[in-house]
Amino acid sequence: MSVRPVRPVRRGPLIAALLATGLLLTGCSGLTGTTDHADNVGSAPGGTAAKDKVAAGATGAAGQPAPEPQIVEPEEIPDLGPATRAEISPQASQAVVVTGTARDSSTASVVVYERDPVTGWHAVSDVWPAHNAVRGWTDDHFQGDLRSPIGVFDLTDAGGKLPDPGTKLPYDRGSAFEASGDGFEGEALAGSFDYVVAINYNRLPGTTPLDWTRPLGENKGGGIWLHVDHGGPTQGCVSLPRWRMKELLRMLDPAKRPVVVMGDADSLTD
Record's superkingdom (predicted)? Predict the structure, then answer.
């Protein structure tokens, strides 16, 4: 949102003369009819010098106009297009941005941003390596397509097989967070669900990540998480190195209404 700067009003000799005679006391000065009305105009601290300054108006040295105030535009999250930015709730002040290398790529990068009410968005993490689904990304995800959904989703619930590392999100610990077998590149999946954050795609917020309620229907898939990286592509989730997952869990704060912004680089510029 841009703000049109207010230009200073130049007052010439006529204004100065009117001030000197008191004829402007009944004008549109914005002051109410208080008993010290005249004093507000004619008795500024500093006596005559102060009156001269008022008469001179908004001028700088040697009669030059005073510089206009500089309006600083709040920073936006880089490389996001207007449609993607519009999906981020005005109440959200924390965003995990997952940028896929390409539409059909399974590699991505993650940066965490926070929003200051005055200066806007700024990065609060380094660039973290990540994996996404083996077939890349889609804006129409369905069960078994082996693609990660594109969009902006709330982050409200966490859990894992290991103890809570110190997150402010509700954390469900349990042995059901078990991954077994091998990944698409033959890597072991064990430990992948030691730490997870549920991505609110086709799920019921405020429940354990293990909850299988699918508001959009079973065919639209679900169970999309941020979880521990196992060294290869996922079925639809986004995975981060173990120590980055712990760091992320400690950063996420429900008071900041965190969201994940995820998709391939080209799609996110829409």
Answer: Bacteria
Half-sphere exposure of 28 (CA within 13 A, CB side): 0
Q: How many CA atoms lie within 13 A of 15 on its CB side?
A: 15
* HEC profile of 153-190: EECCEEEECCCCCCCCCCEEECCCCCCCCECCCCCECC
Name the residue type at position 192: S
CA angle (102, 103, 109) in 5-degree steps: 45
Q: What is the pTM of this model?
A: 0.75
Q: Which two three-digit tokens encode residue 189?
A: 């999946």
Contact 211, 224 (CB under 8 A): no
Angle at 209 between CA 143 and CA 255, to 5 degrees: 120
Average pLDDT across each block of 10 residues of the chain; the chain has 270 residues. List them in order: 38 36 33 32 38 42 69 91 98 98 98 97 98 98 98 98 98 97 98 98 98 98 98 98 98 98 97
> Nearest 5°: phi and psi at 228?
-70, 135
